[in-house]
Amino acid sequence: MEKCRKRTWTIKESYADDLFTDGRQGICLNCGEIGQFAEPDAREYTCYCCGCKTLYGFEEAIVEMYIEVVPDGTPV
Ligand SMILES: [Zn+2]
N- or C-end of the chain: fewer Cβ atoms within 10 A? Predict the structure, then answer.
């Protein structure tokens, strides 16, 4: 069995704004891949990149506290 875990991702404010505004971009909480289609409230979709069921809608990921948004210019 492959290991799938949900981790927290740090994203810069301006990029987060873009993703939030777009509203159709998911983020994989396992591998961090961004850009796969997912509704804002999507949960546990399968990520094409790593095969884990950890693809979340961007909004949902924020609500569930998997995404930490930091101001632009913050070293990550
Ligand atoms: Zn993935």
Answer: N
